[in-house]
Amino acid sequence: MTSAPEDDDATPARPTDELDDQQFVIDVFARACPSRSLLADVTGRWGTLAVLALADGTARFGALRRRVDGVSEKMLSQTLQALERDGLVVREVVSSIPPHVEYTLTPLGLRIAQRLHALVEVLEDAVPEVVAARAAHEARGRVDA
């Protein structure tokens, strides 16, 4: 009597199967994984602030620069270019007099902004604890010196 092959031996399809042909695994700890550079773009000093500022809606470059206090034009421009390359931001040139550029988050950018906003809420709520911890650390440093 011949037995039919069992399905238990079949390897289930993984979400990364299509990417296996490209010779990388989606793992932020892997050096070549694109998620690592995306993480750097989003969580860099200005990336997080730009994404959060755009979560409020479409904005022009100047408005973003005013909202993200302390960022230079060059850094904001580079940050927006990286976020656009990563598919988080759409840059649109508006034909008006004078012409101007507007930036908007993509659906992916909005999903990331929601998570960043939750993180910022935790961080802002923790400020009193952090200030106290820093003061205690500084006080210990003076005694230990």
UniProtKB/TrEMBL annotation:
Positions of transmembrane segments: none
Keywords: DNA-binding, Transcription, Transcription regulation
GO-annotated molecular function: DNA binding
PROSITE patterns in alphabetical order: HTH_HXLR (PS51118)
Pfam families xrefs: HxlR
Keyword presence, DNA damage: no
Domain HTH hxlR-type: 33-131
The protein's name in its UniProt record: HxlR family transcriptional regulator
